[in-house]
Amino acid sequence: MRFGTILLPVLVFFTGTLAQGPDTDRQIPFQNKDREACLMSTSGQGEIRLKIECRGQGKTYSCEFTGKPSYCRAYNQKRDAYWSQLSQDLRKMSKPCEAPLIKHSMCPRAPSPSQFKPADPNQQSDTAKSPTKKPVTKKTTKKPAPTKSKGPDQENPKAMKIAKDHCSWFFQKFCSYIIEIFIN
């Protein structure tokens, strides 16, 4: 019975992962907040590579981000809606390549691997990086040395013996802890 309850979720997970199939390459044009013409293109399977190219005001720039959108439920359910919403999110940014992280609005609580991070950490411009500050030294006073106390692994043998006699094996550590409180 235990084996079946463990095996069923594992099989469902792998079936869902294998059924996803290859992700097709997409190219979605959009215009960012600074009215630059941009093109978002995706490639890859599993870990998706997101390339953003923008042209405007006499300059051209591009950048690449990587992420695993399969961690996002919205991506797994409706991929076309996921990518069109991501282009909407990028439209709200003035310089999408300066973003330290692209977080999708359809997946606000998705784990961090689902967020798109720069493929090359050096691609961020100086405005995206936080200015470096010198560490502030604080004066600290020495705290008195703690008195001898039992470590977390040290147990009172008398409390452990009583717990073994009166508690089930699953609760013995907990019982010995409670008993030790009453003994001391």
UniProtKB/TrEMBL annotation:
Pfam families referenced in this protein's UniProt entry, alphabetically: FGF-BP1 (PF06473)
Keyword GTP-binding: no
InterPro entries in the cross-refs: FGF1-bd
UniProt biased composition (Basic residues): 131-142
GO cellular component: extracellular region
Record keywords, A-Z: Disulfide bond, Growth factor binding, Secreted, Signal
Subcellular location: Secreted
Similarity-based family: Belongs to the fibroblast growth factor-binding protein family.
Protein name: Fibroblast growth factor binding protein 2
GO biological process, one term: cell-cell signaling
Stretches the record annotates as Disordered: 108-158
Primary subcellular site in the record, as a coarse category: secreted
Position of the signal peptide: 1-19
MF annotations from Gene Ontology: growth factor binding
